[in-house]
Write a sequence for this structure.
């Protein structure tokens, strides 16, 4: 396959199923990454999105010609589809649990698609997409949109390895 994703011979064209977490701080960086994969490397993109989130990705669709959407309603119609719809004080993890309900419809779609995805790219909050990728027999790329420095600092501050003892001090950044 050529580097721009155009098939050469009998190889499949690069096709990513993108599964974003529906909160702007997660959705926008992942779509920016997907846009770059498409425009620079020729990936075809299918973005799995709940119907109420379609308006949030309209600019992405206009600027990314190889992208299409796959609107997937949540099985439980009373479930929130975006972090804005969560009651105050509710943890975003609840939204990730509700979103796991779209795994079966996505798997059915992938198996029936004439040109199925060659990779699943999903937000790191959506661990269930590993099972989806396994069912599709493709790799999963977990996208973590937080800056590396802040992520490493957070991990180090929580890691028991870096806590020497109660009497010793560990220099903080």
């Amino acid at each position: 396959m050529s580097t721009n994703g155009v098939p050469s011979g009998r190889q499949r064209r690069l096709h990513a199923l993108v599964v974003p977490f529906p909160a702007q701080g997660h959705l926008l960086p992942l779509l920016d990454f997907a846009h770059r994969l498409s425009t620079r490397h020729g990936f075809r993109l299918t973005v799995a999105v709940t119907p109420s989130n379609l308006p949030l990705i309209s600019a992405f669709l206009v600027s990314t010609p190889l992208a299409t959407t796959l609107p997937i309603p949540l099985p439980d119609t009373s479930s929130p589809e975006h972090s804005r719809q969560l009651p105050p004080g509710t943890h975003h993890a609840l939204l990730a649990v509700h979103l796991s309900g779209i795994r079966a419809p996505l798997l059915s779609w992938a198996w029936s698609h004439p040109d199925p995805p060659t990779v699943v790219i999903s937000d790191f909050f959506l661990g269930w997409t590993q099972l989806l990728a396994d069912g599709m027999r493709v790799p999963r790329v977990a996208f973590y949109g937080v800056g590396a420095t802040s992520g490493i600092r957070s991990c180090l501050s929580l890691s028991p390895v870096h806590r020497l003892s109660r009497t010793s001090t560990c220099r903080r950044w």
Q: What stands out?
A: Residues 1-9 have pLDDT under 50 and may be disordered. The two ends are 45 Å apart (CA to CA).
